[in-house]
Design a protein that fits this description.
Elements lengths: L1 H32 L6 E2 L7 E7 L3 E2 L2 E2 L1 H15 L3 E7 L9 H11 L7 E4 L5 H10 L5 E6 L4 H10 L3 E6 L6 H24 L13 H6 L1
Helix pairs in contact: 1-6, 4-5, 5-6
């Protein structure tokens, strides 16, 4: 009987802990996403802006993987429709999977985008740095950002926190279910709690200067 009682207490305590943790994460997620309310669009109804920002993601053999291709396809469409005049590709040029900037630039050019409208930021090491460098280093004041639905509210919220008048455009992803589940879990368990801290206690980008003046000129 004592064993059963201890077991019930353990199960009850665990259930309460899980429920409390779930509620806490839900609260964090809602607070991070709140600044993006009313600023999330599909490609069909996206507004116009001077620039569309594409945050980096994994590449393979020098070419964007499905998640990143989805983001770039949105940028290609917005440029073709004249709903953006230029594109800022922002990622890690020294990323573990390869040079995200070279892969993104090559993909855009292969899909008909002129190099003269492609600005590059090789130090967009995460979403926070992408947004703050866009504002502080590249002088972006108004922009669209293209990324997947689970990432979009956080990206727009961080962009607005950086001082950019930003709206988000949902990108598709021809991804495996396992890939999507992994990224959604990471978004809600890790990325949004981190973003909440960054929104309340802003830090400087890890790299604070541009590599040259070419890209800032494209976005001027």
């Amino acid at each position: 009987m004592r064993t059963n009682a201890r077991w019930r207490r353990t199960v009850t305590g665990t259930a309460i802990g899980v429920a409390g943790g779930t509620l806490a994460l839900a609260g964090v997620s809602a607070r991070v996403a709140a600044p993006a309310a009313g600023r999330l669009y599909t490609l069909a109804d996206a507004p116009t802006a001077p620039v569309v920002i594409v945050p980096g993601a994994r590449v393979r053999n020098g070419w964007p993987m499905p998640m990143l291709r989805g983001r770039l396809d949105v940028a290609v469409a917005l440029l073709a429709d004249s709903r953006a005049r230029s594109v800022l590709v922002s990622g890690d040029a020294g990323g573990r999977s390869g040079d995200e900037i070279a892969a993104m630039t090559g993909y855009l050019v292969a899909h008909g985008v002129g190099r003269e409208v492609i600005a590059t930021d090789p130090y967009g090491l995460d979403t926070y740095d992408t947004c703050h460098r866009a504002a502080q280093v590249y002088g972006v004041t108004t922009a669209l950002i293209a990324t997947q639905d689970f990432h979009l509210p956080r990206a727009v919220a961080l962009g607005r926190r950086a001082g950019i008048d930003m709206a988000g455009v949902v990108a598709g992803c021809d991804c495996r279910l396992r890939t999507r589940v992994r990224n959604v879990l990471r978004e809600y368990l890790l990325s949004r709690p981190k973003a909440l801290v960054e929104m309340h206690f802003p830090r400087p980008p890890r790299v604070g200067s541009a590599t040259d003046g070419t890209s800032t000129g494209i976005l001027a």
